[in-house]
Amino acid sequence: MFESVKFEHHLDKADFKALEPSLREDLLNAQFQLIDQKRRSLLVLIHGPDGSGKGGVLNRLYGWLDVRKVQTLTFDMPCAEEDRPPMWKYWRELPPFGQIGVMLGSWYHAPLCRRALGEMGRADFISALQEIQRFEAMLHSEGVSLLKIWLYLDDEEARRRLKALTKGAWQRPVVREWAELGGAGARKRLYEASEEAARATSTEIAPWHVVPAADVDYRDAMAGSLLLETLRAIAAEPEPAPQPLPPNPTRVPGALPPFSILSTLDLSQSLTPAEYEAQLAREQNRITRLTNSPAFGRAGLVVAFEGSDAAGKSSTIMRLRRALDPQRFRVHPIAAPTDEERARPYLWRFWRHIPQHGRTVIFDRSWYGRVLVERVEGLCGPDDWGRAYGEINDFEDQVSQAGYVVVKFWLAISEAEQARRFEERESIAYKRFKLTPEDWRNRGKWPLYDAAVTEMVDRTSTRTAPWVLVEAEDKHFARVKVLRTIADRLEAALG
C-alpha cells in the first residue's frame, strides 16, 4: 500500500492558494451538515513517522473547520501496562454525534510499537489487528465513522525534519509518537508492521489512506480532501428505518417447544434464618479480606446484576456493599440512556465507569440491556442486538485481560412469585417507588424475555466471564449464593 507514495507528489504554492478557499468552504458546509443531522460522529486518526507533520495536519484542519465542534484527542502512548484496560481511554473520549475528533496516538499505537520493538510475535500482532477490525466495525455500526490517515515520509527525511524542529533558536512543539524506537532496526520494523496493519485493517467502512507528506501543501490538501469526501459520504447515508415490535413467540404445531434455560433452575432452594446469618457473614468477611489484600490492588472487580423485575437485585447489592470499603467502590443503577449517552455507542456509558485497579464497580442492570429490553421492546433491530453478543464478549474479554474479575448474575424468580412481590410493593408505601405501570405491562412479555435470556446466556457465557444463574425465590439463598460466587472468583483470581 505504500509503494505509490514513494514517488514525488507536489503542489505548487500558487495551485494550493487557488484550491484552498473552495476546499475550506466545502469543508465547512459538510461539517455543518454533520452538526445539523447529529446522526453520526467522525474520528480522524492521524499516524505516521515522527517528523511527517502530524501536528501540522492537525493545525491546518483546525484552521479550516468550525473548532467549536472539533476535539483533539491525544494520549500518553506507553507500551507498558496501564491502570485500566487499554481501550478505556479511547472509549472515554469518543465525541458525541455531530462532532469530529482528531486523534493522535490511537489504538494502533501499542501493537505497532510492541511489534517494532520485537515484544510481540506475528501471531499475536495479527490477533490484535483482528480485534481492532472488530472494534472499528462496531464503532461504524454504532454511528462513529472513521477516517484513517497514514502520513508517509521516508525515514531519512523524517529524521531530518524532526531534528530541524527540535534544534535551534526557534523550536516548535513536535508530536512524538515513536520516541521508544531509537534505532534504525526498530524504525524499519515499524514501517513493515505499519504496512501489514494497513493491509489487514483497511476495510470498506474504515479504509486506510496513505498520504505523501514530503510536500506540506500537497499533504494538507490531500488530508482536507479526504475529510471532505468522508463528511459528504456521512451526509448521504439514509436515515435508519424504525424497528417494529417483536411478536410473542407462538407454538408451531408438531414442533419442539422452545428451550428455556431458566426452567432448569430449582427455585425451591432456601436457607433457614440461622443458616442465612452465618453464611452471609462468612462470605462478607471473605470479600472484605480479599478486596483489601495487596493482590487486589493490581486487579479489580466488575459485577453486573440482571434479573426479572422484583427478583431482589437491590437488596442483594446492599449486602454486597456492606462487605466493601465505601471509598473504593461505586454502584451504577442503569436506566434508559440520557441524551448524552444516546449520542454515542451503547457500550460507552459502561466503559467510562470501569474503575482503576484496586476498586469495584457494581452495575444494577448492565450492557445486557441491548440484548434484553432493547431487543424485546423493539428499541433496536435484529442486526443490532444480533451483533451485540460478539461486541459484549470482546468488551468483557478486554476487561478481564486487564486483570479485572468480571462476575455476571441473573436473578430468577417464577411468574407467580413476581406477581406476589408486585402486590406487596403496592401495599407498602415506602416500596411503591419500586413499581411502575411498565413493570406490570412487562409481565405480558415473559415469553419474549425468557427466550432472550436463554440466547443471552448461551452466547455470552465465556470462560473468563461465565453467567451465574441464581435461584432467587428465596432471597436469603440468593444473597448468599451471589456473595459466595464473588468470593470464590476473587480467591481463584488473586491466589
From TrEMBL:
Keyword Plastid attributed: no
Pfam families assigned to the protein according to its UniProt record, in alphabetical order: PPK2
GO molecular function, one term: polyphosphate:AMP phosphotransferase activity
UniProt keyword list: ATP synthesis
Domain Polyphosphate kinase-2-related intervals: 12-231, 274-492
Reactions catalysed: [phosphate](n) + ATP = [phosphate](n+1) + ADP
Alphabetized Gene3D superfamilies for the sequence: P-loop containing nucleotide triphosphate hydrolases
Keyword Transport: no
Swiss-Prot/TrEMBL GO biological process terms: ATP biosynthetic process; polyphosphate metabolic process
PANTHER family: POLYPHOSPHATE:AMP PHOSPHOTRANSFERASE (PTHR34383:SF3), POLYPHOSPHATE:AMP PHOSPHOTRANSFERASE-RELATED (PTHR34383)
Listed name of the protein: Polyphosphate:AMP phosphotransferase
The gene coding this protein: pap
